[in-house]
From TrEMBL:
Cofactor binding description: Binds 1 zinc ion.
Cross-referenced Pfam families: dCMP_cyt_deam_1, RibD_C
Organism: Senegalimassilia faecalis
GO biological process terms, semicolon-separated: riboflavin biosynthetic process
Taxonomic lineage: Bacteria, Bacillati, Actinomycetota, Coriobacteriia, Coriobacteriales
Catalytic activity: 5-amino-6-(5-phospho-D-ribitylamino)uracil + NADP(+) = 5-amino-6-(5-phospho-D-ribosylamino)uracil + NADPH + H(+); 2,5-diamino-6-hydroxy-4-(5-phosphoribosylamino)-pyrimidine + H2O + H(+) = 5-amino-6-(5-phospho-D-ribosylamino)uracil + NH4(+)
Gene: ribD
Source domain of life: Bacteria
Record InterPro entries: CMP_dCMP_dom, Cytidine_deaminase-like, DHFR-like_dom_sf, Eubact_RibD, RibD_C, RibDG_C, Riboflavin_Biosynth_HTPR
Protein name, UniProt field: Riboflavin biosynthesis protein RibD
């Protein structure tokens, strides 16, 4: 099961909104197949592991198997499958994994996490038992659950898992009073941020950040990665049509959503005409209800993003946007990169704006802290006690990716059956 967990991490940043899943198939104490869910829409971990069995046996995947429903071509008869998440028993973009395990003649399935998806939730294990397969559940469940805090939240709440992030000096400043903010942290911390962007499905900033910095907000890593959706909170639709975000979207570099309270449904309004021009360049313009202050409602925005299948959101600022998410109670965890610098100045901005807590007892409790050292900087991660921390998983996911690329370079990469 520990090996299955290692394999599952290789899918980090690629499977959204599906879960991370790994599978190892063993017979007579020997691993005969391995696989993981590699990409959204492609074969699931169990089918990849089963398809790996004939390759490892030397039989290959060519020829017509005795049972066309058996991805293992008869090579997994009587084996045990270790899988980090309860096998699915419904048809989505892929057929049920339970059917593949049954067709392959698997004798025993060892399950890590239970799937909260109502389409699965215990039904996968029931289907396997009904076919005469022994099922043992909850093996290394805590470690398996850590793989999918995002998926578990999304499947139960239908809204994205939210990570609030900011970088600041040791005295709590995110920029100088002049507005200069490049760079607060060092290169190691900035690399880690890009790993976090790769892990999550979308990045959110406010229009103030766009106007001040003209950011690109793409995921830039040593190895190519999927690009998260960029989301801009822009209540009055002020986004410049020639900014880096719009240009990169029109060039197909990364998707862009602009959430606004402007009257874009009013055909006679200048905002409606601008929204059409943005749409012609590939930008999605969301008309979102305003909150009491006339800003984009965080709760309505999250509901809309969830309906689009966006399972996770990295909120990068600015201070007003972070305040809005904290005030809405929408933050699941926070990550703070602290640089060993003192900026000073009463006019230098702090990370979170808004009205603030009137009393210390009213302050937002972030939860228990963990830390990591990245070069000269310190990474602080906050989440409720016992909760899995997505922000703390960047090293794990990156190591898994490095191991995968090393394995592929040596010709040891299992293939994913065509979907």
């Amino acid at each position: 099961m520990r090996r299955a967990i290692e394999l599952a991490w290789r899918g980090a940043g690629w499977t959204s909104p599906n879960p991370l899943v790994g599978c190892v198939i063993v017979r007579e104490g020997r691993v005969i197949g391995e696989g993981w869910h590699e990409r959204y829409g492609q074969a699931h971990a169990e089918r990849n592991a089963l398809a790996d069995c004939p390759l490892r046996s030397g039989q290959g995947a060519s020829g017509q198997p005795a049972n066309p429903d058996d991805p293992a071509h008869g090579c997994a008869q009587g084996a045990t499958a270790y899988v980090t998440l309860e096998p699915c028993c419904h048809t989505g973009k892929q057929p049920p994994c339970t059917e593949a395990l049954i067709a392959a003649g698997i004798a025993r399935v060892v399950v890590g996490s239970r799937d909260p998806n109502p389409l699965v939730a215990g039904k996968g294990c029931e289907a396997l038992r009904a076919a005469g397969i022994r099922v043992d559940a909850d093996v290394l469940r805590a470690a398996c659950d850590e793989l999918n805090s995002v998926f578990f939240h999304f499947i139960t709440h239908k809204t994205p898992y939210v990570v609030a992030k900011w970088a600041m000096s040791a005295d709590g400043k995110i920029a100088c009073a002049s507005g200069d903010a490049r760079w607060i942290t060092g290169p190691e911390a900035r690399v880690d941020v890009h790993e976090l962007r790769h892990r999550l499905a979308a990045i959110c900033v406010g229009i103030g950040t766009v106007l001040a910095d003209d950011p690109l907000l793409t995921c830039r890593r040593d190895t190519p990665g999927s690009q998260p959706v960029r989301v801009v909170l822009d209540s009055r639709l002020r986004i410049p049509e020639d900014c880096a975000l719009v240009r990169s979207c029109s060039e197909g570099a990364a998707p862009l959503i602009v959430a606004t309270c402007a009257p874009v449904a009013d055909e006679a309004s200048p905002e409606a005409a601008k929204a059409k021009r943005l749409a012609s360049r590939g930008v999605e313009v969301f008309s979102v209800a305003p909150d009491a202050a006339g800003r984009v409602s965080v709760s309505h925005l999250l509901a809309m993003l969830g309906s689009c299948g966006i399972d996770s959101l990295l909120v990068e600022g600015g201070a007003g946007v972070l305040a809005a998410f904290f005030e809405a109670g929408a933050v699941n965890e926070a990550v703070v990169y602290v640089a060993p610098k003192v900026i000073g100045g009463a006019g230098a901005p702090s990370p979170v704006a808004g009205k603030g807590a009137p009393r210390m007892a009213d302050a937002v409790a972030l939860g228990r802290a963990t830390s990591d050292v990245l070069g000269d900087d310190v990474k602080l991660m906050f989440a409720p006690a016992g909760a899995a921390r997505v922000a703390s998983q960047t090293r794990i996911a990156r190591k898994a990716a490095d191991d995968w690329h090393a394995s592929a370079a040596e010709g040891g990469a299992p293939c994913s059956p065509a979907s």
